[in-house]
Write a structure and sequence with these properties.
The complex is a heterodimer of chains A (about 525) and B (about 90).
Chain A (H helix, E strand, L loop, with lengths): L2 H32 L2 H9 L14 H11 L8 E4 L8 E5 L12 E5 L6 E4 L5 H11 L5 H23 L17 H15 L1 H15 L1 H11 L5 H7 L19 H12 L1 E9 L7 E8 L6 E7 L16 H14 L5 H28 L8 H16 L1 H14 L7 H21 L4 H26 L1 H9 L4 H31 L1
Antiparallel strand pairs in A: 1-2, 1-5, 2-3, 3-4, 5-6, 6-7
Chain B lengths: L1 H25 L4 H23 L6 H23 L4
The chains are: A alpha+beta (about 525), B mainly alpha (about 90).
Keywords (chain B): Membrane, Transmembrane, Transmembrane helix
Chain lengths: ~525, ~90
């Protein structure tokens, strides 16, 4: 490959990388945490509830009846039921309640106790996991999914240009790290290359799947306009996502026993049901859609609709042949969130995700080191990049730690609980970024950020140990490890951050001498 | 660099869309497979074309090359749409 090609690709790699670095860092940071979405959800809500034996559970129909007596549910619309899992022993119900004060089409989301059908809490009050998920997919910004899509597109370009730059040395320099024997710039280059090459399959998978999820609209519009001439129904049918609807008749009909239906469906399909979609519940035209995972086929989702009137999974609603598009996209979704295997693969993905965060920081440091003495780039611009890298990357750690702390300590009946947690996150993050613009000693700033974050997490651990230990241990003893795992990891991170803080403090002392 | 970024973004989008529409017509697969292939390849071609732009010092050469291919691909799109090409 010509030297000029490598030089141009490297210039493009650095240029694009620099501009997308902060949003990409946030996406990867939040994405790494989102890998443990079910555990974080369980950690948020379970310590506020009482453990009850699984054997005492009410039938799902009775639970729905109890909920309907409590809420004015519009059964003509579709409602969602997420079944209890090995992580979360509660039902999650998303109900279309009449005269909901919130936005149109908004659903009222509640956790329901499977033992007595009573509402345990509003899902919206324990919003941390969803907030982190939102941060990952759309930065919690209006039109954020498109912004993240564009960032992901440029991220793919960064991967491709990085490959062009590294192509010749991909194998020979695979673990090439010069360590302390060379200058800082070469150390950073080696660090960037080693982590970049090692995480290549992972980053490529994320770039591709992220693009497909966030910029999929472009693909849909093009396909709809140029291939299907605007026929949306035909497109949805061909992609394996047909819109199944039935009109509401107003004629009452007794519903099938949902537990029996789920059990027989699981046996017949060799699958584990995870959620239900109920349309026209209690009506002649009621539909029950069961979604689950095949027990032995690799990451295969089974999605079937039961027509209550006919007492069967009607052939017109459930095509006999599987759809490659639907299966392919669902598989990629599972790949993206590490759903295709156990917790071990999610831990590997988590480490790799944090590795990419490190890659981004090192990339920016490399750019700053390279152009430190370049007078064609204004010093203000260089300082802004420095401050954004420091505050934008390091600042997310105390912001996240503080959000976790508030999620635990705020009262469950507090109005706008979620809003307070989210505002606190952004406030700490903003303070960190602003503070970075006035920082002169990098090591000292990192040391203080790490120590502050460690202190917040240590406080969280202390509060959990004193106030919620019984509930957490009780759930742990009964196989619900989520709350304990998150508490333990918080404590481990507190220790790690204290260690990092002390190390950077020592480094700062040395640099002053 | 800004110019290179804008141009590569736009030309990459148009060319990848056009290529995928042609591929969708000619690939001998079932419709669901063709849609999946188009969905995945479209983004890869787009990002690949942008990367191609960034492998040149000047924008002119890759832009001319890509525009030539785009013209050919667009003509094929129109011929397919009109039913001239089966």
């Amino acid at each position: 490959m010509k030297a000029s090609v490598i030089r141009s690709a490297l210039e493009g790699h650095g240029w694009i990388g620099l501009f997308i670095s902060i949003p990409l860092f946030i996406v990867f940071w939040a994405g790494s945490l989102t890998l443990f979405y079910p555990e974080i959800k369980a950690w948020s809500v379970l310590p506020h509830t009482e453990y009850r034996s699984v054997s005492d559970q009410l039938p799902l129909n009775n639970i729905l009846d109890t909920v309907f007596s409590e809420y004015d549910v519009n059964t003509q619309q579709r409602m969602f039921v997420v079944l209890p899992t090995e992580t979360m022993p509660l039902y999650e119900l998303h109900l279309p309640v009449n005269e909901t004060p919130s936005a149109k089409n908004a659903l009222t989301s509640i956790y329901v106790d499977p033992v007595n059908g009573e509402t345990v809490a509003s899902i919206d009050s324990f919003h941390l996991a969803d907030f982190l998920y939102g941060l990952h997919i759309d930065l919690n910004l209006p039109l954020g999914d498109h912004i993240v899509g564009i960032v992901t597109l440029f991220f793919t370009v960064v991967i491709f240009t990085g490959l062009v730059v590294q192509f010749k040395k991909l194998i020979t320099h695979f673990f090439y790290y010069r360590g302390g024997s060379t200058t800082l710039r070469y150390q950073l280059t080696d660090m960037h290359n080693v982590v970049g090459v090692m995480s290549l399959p992972y980053t490529f998978m994320y770039a591709l799947t992220g693009l497909m999820f966030n910029l999929g609209l472009i693909s849909q519009i093009v396909t709809l306009l140029f291939i299907y001439d605007g026929d949306r129904t035909a497109l949805l049918n061909d992609t394996g996502f047909p819109r199944v609807t039935e009109s509401y008749t107003g004629i009452e009909r007794e519903m099938s026993d949902l537990n029996t239906l789920i059990t027989s469906w699981e046996e017949k399909e060799n699958a584990k049901a995870s959620s239900l979609r109920l349309t026209n519940y209690g009506d002649e035209n009621a539909l029950i859609r069961i979604i689950g995972q095949h027990r032995s086929n690799f990451s295969q989702r089974i999605d079937m609709t039961y027509r209550v009137r006919e007492n069967e999974f009607s052939a017109d609603l459930n095509p006999a042949e599987r759809n490659a598009f639907a299966d392919g996209t669902r598989f990629l979704y599972a790949l993206h969130f590490g759903h295709f295997a156990g917790v071990d693969i999610r831990i590997v993905f988590f480490i790799l995700g944090l590795g990419v965060c490190g890659l981004i920081v090192v990339g920016n440091m490399l750019w700053l080191t390279k152009f430190q003495n370049n007078r064609s780039i204004s010093s203000r611009f260089k300082h802004s990049i420095f401050a954004l890298t420091l505050g934008g990357c390091a600042g997310i750690v105390p912001a996240t730690a503080f959000a976790f702390l508030l999620e635990r300590v705020l009262g469950t009946d507090l109005n706008n609980r979620s809003f307070i947690v989210e505002t606190a996150f952004f406030a700490v993050y903003a303070i960190s970024i602003i503070g970075a613009f006035f920082t002169k000693h990098v090591h000292l700033a990192i040391s203080r950020t790490a120590l502050a974050s460690g202190l917040i997490l240590a406080l969280l651990s202390l509060i959990e140990a004193l106030g919620h230990n019984q509930a957490i241990i009780q759930f742990l003893n009964n196989g619900y490890t989520g709350p304990f795992s998150i508490s333990f990891v918080s404590f481990a991170f507190a220790c790690l951050l204290f260690w990092l803080g002390i190390k950077f403090s020592e480094k700062d002392e040395k640099s002053k001498e | 660099m800004w110019r290179k970024t804008y141009l590569s973004f736009l030309i990459g989008l148009l060319l990848s869309t056009s290529i995928i529409l042609n591929l969708n017509h000619f690939l001998p697969f079932d419709v669901d497979v063709k849609l999946l292939v188009g969905y995945i390849l479209g983004f890869l071609i787009w990002a690949g074309l942008m990367s191609y732009f960034f492998c040149f010092e000047k924008t002119k050469k890759p832009a001319l090359q890509c525009l030539s291919v785009l013209t050919f691909s667009l003509v094929l799109n129109v011929l397919i749409k009109l039913g001239v090409v089966a």
